[in-house]
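2024-03-11 09:14:02 INFO receiving multi-entity request
2024-03-11 09:14:02 INFO entity count = two
2024-03-11 09:14:03 INFO echoing inputs for audit
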Amino acid sequence: MTMTPVTPQAAVSTVPGLTAPDPQPLSDTKTLTLAKAINEGLRQAMLDDPKVVLLGEDIGALGGVFRVTSDLLAQFGARRVIDTPLAESAIIGTAVGLAYRGYRPVCEIQFDGFIFPGFDQIVSQVARFHYRTQGAVRMPITIRVPFGGGIGAAEHHSESPEAYFTHTSGLRVIAVSNSQDAYSLIRQAISSDDPVLYFEPKRRYHVKGEVVPELGAPMEQAAIVHSGTDVTLLAYGALVPTARDAALAADDEGISIEVIDLRSLAPVDYTVLEASVRKTGRLVVTHEASATGGLGGEIIATITERCFNFLESAPVRVTGFDVPYPPAKLESHYLPDLDRILDGVDRVMGRR
Amino acid sequence: MIDFSPQLVQLLSIDGERMPRADFDPWVADLDGAALLALYRDMVVVRRIDTEATALQRQGELGLWPPLLGQEAAQIGSARALRSDDFIFPSYRENAVAYCRGVNLTDIVKVWRGNAQSGWDPYTVNMATPAIIIGAQTLHAIGWALGAQRDDVDSVAITYFGDGATSQGDVNEAMVFAASFQAPVIFFCQNNQWAISEPVGVQAHRNIADRAPGFGIPSLRIDGNDVIAVMAATRIALDRARTGNGPTFIEAVTYRMGPHTTADDPTRYRDPAELAEWKTRDPLLRLHRLLTALGEITPEVEAATAVIADDAAAELRAGCIGLPDPEPLSVFDHVYTAPQATLERQRADYAGYLSSFASAEVPGER
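2024-03-11 09:21:47 INFO inference complete, emitting structure
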């Protein structure tokens, strides 16, 4: 092989035909889809800190398969919006090296089920560098993951892998449920000096909501999204709206449900959760991920340890089953829905 | 014009004779007798440190040690070619590289004594701490190099790994990324012939250096026991990276004369004749012969070098044995950069538990 200088095309390429849209960040309250809210949060983070760079598959000209990174390449260029080869371990491992050099990388994993080739770099490297080096090396990496089902997708496109990451010390894990949190928490995740797994409820990407360009409450805090006195219903991600619907339906039957949007899956905000359970005496946890070894079991164990004398009945999990994520025509049987959540509520109420 | 052909590059013969080569010689023209003697001294010292660390393991002072015996030229020749602002992403055997970077000798063994998961602050020496997952560090080098590229500086990332690592996905993904982004990075593969008990033939049916061109990365296959060839190749690769010409792959053909680690027993899988054959290619031996011919080696020089090496060994031993055990509650330190509620509760609980033994022996303490 002879030494032929190669033009670093990938690193400096520009996209013909694309012009930069209005580069102004969000300045007042707007109604945005959840996907657009993340986009605006990314834009603001990139404006705030030149060390924020994005890496992922198809995130450039295409704007990501869900368009979450739309127009960011045109605004910030290919040095900061990096379309990568199709290799998840390398996306994460490269982010580690960028973080080593003082960058603040945001990785997009295209679909939940594609995170596993990058699992080793996340669990063995990203999560541990700060501990391994006794605080010398920080990993301010955000890993964005569209997660969950309900979109009729092919296999590996509907998974809920969050428990693998909540089980891993060194990571912070977030799941957003609405446009405001999507905007605020992506900015908080990026500015965190710890690595953050940021789970996006892909079937809610197109749901609109009001967004104020503010950081809001710290991302570790859970939010009470519907007050109640009889049952604490804990949800996160795509199931939060479902849980709220369940609360409204139960109101009609005279059952008062307090719905908590967990927001942070690691650490769990037990302050809010314990206070609620001490008030209601009953707990239902719902998630799309399968039951065994899931976050629901961990939360219920902890609440049982801490609030045993306040519990009126055994806490209940309403979750996906211990099966691989099923084919699209079966997913309605797998996914917790309003009726299954209400069935769980009936069980903690002793009504069946 | 450098010839990136697959022939083994050798600039110093087993007999200690310089082998002229027009394309490589200009890169090492500055290596006069004094410079070669300095490289030799490095190699003697790191071999002595390595021997001492093995002894410390045998005496129960270290839990484990990965010897570099036989790989001194590959590590010293490459490390001494670097600038201080270049950044090194090693595996776990690059103790000679760490020595060249000025890592405190005690810090090198901290991890092997079990006092910490790594021994030094990478930013003080521009060298990452040992990576134990095989090949994972190659990707970190790519990211660092992309950062240097974005910072518009000409610093270079170099990553060390072995022949076994070339089978890992991460190493191959790193080569894809390096080529795509023309990252200023050097892949420095020490082919020491053995991945624990698996000979290199299990990893590769062709020379490892042959793989890189398929990724679009020029490669050099060099005699890794020839410190002059190693330095020349590393300088060539550094120059390519600094001038925007992207990655280079170097296969340094060497030999792990010792076990994989002190927990390994190579007599179970390795023909002693092979070791005997490689002993004739010892990297120190041939440089000693050259230096003798150049008149640089005298009894005084030998004695002075031995003193430096023995002093280093003594410093290592004293430092190792003097390392205090970490405080029990430090098990919770540095998991996060800021307090994390779940962990803080566990810390408080365990502190309370420990304090309940206030006047007695603390559980877990030896």
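2024-03-11 09:21:48 INFO post-check: Confidence is low (pLDDT under 50) at residues 1-18 of chain A.
2024-03-11 09:21:48 INFO post-check: Chain A has two domains: 31-211, 223-348.
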